[in-house]
From TrEMBL:
Pfam families: SnoaL_2. This is SnoaL-like domain-containing protein. It comes from Chlorella ohadii. Coiled coil: none annotated. Residues 23-128 form the SnoaL-like domain. The lineage of its organism: Eukaryota, Viridiplantae, Chlorophyta, core chlorophytes, Trebouxiophyceae. It comes from the Eukaryota.
Amino acid sequence: MTTETAPRPRVQQMVQLAHDYLIEYLTNKRAELADQLFDEGVVHKDVVWDPTHPTVGIEGMRHYLQDLSTAFPDFWVEIDQYATVDTNSIMVTYKGSATNLGEYHHHKATGHASNFEGANCFRFNHDRSRITHIDVYRSAFAEDLDEVGEKRQAQEGGFRDLRLKRLVI
């Protein structure tokens, strides 16, 4: 005999906030939810593609949504799974799609359509009523790969640079 138990209220609360962030805030672009979702000191960090530039604070999250909506107006995600990490954290896996139709990281629109997958680790305040941290681990947009290529070309050294220096000498 098996019995299913309903999720505990704290887990339901964290799942609802993560859902509202990914679906209502990001996908449906409901900026008015920022004050309900985020702690004043919220930190959003794209750990893989932009770890040195976290977004901080509720106003920062509003700007993040505006920038995302400008660069990728058709951005959407679909949630795959939720998993509890500890009493104040959950992981959420998702997949989505976005087409770059506006400026992104100071680059002009490319028109690239990207499908991506990811996992976000959400951390919550003591009573789990607000999101305090979002660590994003996602696959790349086409523009992320272009930016990595530009950074590599701008760096000194590497095999190609070494060959060119030998030819000049």
